[in-house]
Design goal:
With 150 residues, this protein is an alpha+beta fold. The mean pLDDT is 96. It contains 5 helices and 5 strands, in the order H-E-H-E-H-H-H-E-E-E.
Length: 150
């Protein structure tokens, strides 16, 4: 964070743009800017996706053709999770459903499926305004991450 603070102090930007692909990093930056009353406004840059919904990543080239065909299920599962959240299912139920959707539709191994408050990345409470549904799925040689913020 020291490097980020130095950069912000040198450049003194009105706005700073950070991608939502690595939502944990974005959460840390947003919290840091808020807690230290920094002048810059953090602008969330949406995840860039392939036509089939897979989040663009340099790691995608490490997928076998079969894994690449299966990988879009990650984004589909996140969208399903967002629907379940909108109708009021409990976080644990949503996490279970999303994990099942991925494991039933792919050979990927779930590293995690988490629904947390955002940007604190803590369990959801009645005070929670925003939530993140984040997943990490490992195919043979490649670990893919994706998320959706609601």
């Amino acid at each position: 964070m020291k490097v980020v603070l130095k950069l912000f102090n040198i450049v003194n930007p009105d706005r700073s743009y950070f991608g939502m692909k690595d939502a944990q990093q974005l959460a840390i930056i947003e919290t840091f800017v808020r807690d230290f009353n920094l002048r810059t406004k953090i602008v969330r840059v949406p995840i860039v996706r392939e036509d089939d919904g897979l989040a663009k990543s340099s790691r995608n080239v490490n997928l076998t053709p079969d894994e690449r065909a299966q990988a879009p299920i990650i984004h589909q599962a996140l969208l399903k999770g967002a629907e379940l959240h909108s109708i009021g299912l409990k976080p644990e139920q949503i996490e279970d459903e999303v994990a099942s959707y991925i494991t039933d539709g792919s050979t990927g191994e779930i590293d995690y499926v988490k629904l947390l408050s955002y940007p604190s990345l803590q369990p959801i409470t009645s005070e929670t305004d925003e939530v993140i549904l984040a997943v990490a799925v490992k195919f043979s040689k490649t670990r893919l991450i994706d998320n959706i913020i609601m």
